[in-house]
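Intended use. Records like the one below are meant for learning the mapping from a protein sequence to its folded structure. Do not use them to infer anything beyond what is encoded.
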Amino acid sequence: MFIDSHCHINFPELAARMPEILGKMAENKVSHALCVSVDLPDFPSVLELAERYPHIYASVGVHPDYEDTPEPSVEDLIRLSEHPKIVAIGETGLDYYRLEGDLEWQRERFRRHIRASRATGKPLIIHTRAASEDTIRIMREEGAGTDAGGAAGVMHCFTESLEVARAAMEMGFYISFSGIVTFKSAKDLQAVAREVPLEQMLIETDSPYLAPVPFRGKVNEPALVRHVGEYLATLKDVPLEQLAKQTSDNFFNLFKIAR
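Structure written out for the chain above:
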C-alpha cells in the first residue's frame, strides 16, 4: 500500500470529483492521504474532508505564499490542532521565489508555526523554496526537530541540496519527494533521493500540482503517488514492496496515526 503524505484535495479541481478521487486511490492501493491546510479561511474544507473519511487526515497552517490572508497566532494554531484528525502543523516555511521585498512577516509566521508544533507535539510540514539557509537557521533557532526536544516533521516536496536534506534529517525530519523527482530535468534531485535513507523518506503528490511522469502537465491526484513510489524504488534499486512499506510506516510513525 502507498500513502500520499501531502495533497490538497479540498481545492476545487479535486473536491468536485471526490468519489472518483477516492475510487482511484483504492484502485492504485493508496490507503491514506493527508490533506494539507494553506490558509485559515479554507481550513474548514480541509477539516470537513478529514471528518467525513476515516482514511483522510488533515493539518492546520498558513502557507508562506499567502500574503493577504488572516495571520494565525500560536494560540489559533494550538486551538485548531486539538481536533483528533488534525495530525500536523503546516504547511509552513519560507518561499523567496514568488515574493519579493521585506519578507520578515514570512519569517515571523514560520516561527509561530514552530512554536505551535513544540507546544502541541504535532509535527511540522515545511515548505522551503529559494530560502533554505533561512529555513534551516530558523528551525534551529526555534528548536524545531527532535534533536532540540521539539516535534519531528517533514520537508515536503523537497527540491533542495543534499546538504539541506542532511541538516533537516539531523533534526529528525523526514524528506518527502513529489512527482518532481520523476522529471527528466531533475537530475540533481534524483541524486539527492539516492542518498536519503528509506527510513527518513516520504512520498507525496502535492496534488493538484506536479503530476509525475507519465502524467506530467495534467491535474495531479493522490492515486498518482504510486508512480512516485515506483520511480523511487527503481532509482534506489530496492523492491517496490519495501519502499511502499517503509514510507507508509514512516507516515504512521511521524503523524502518530494508528494503523
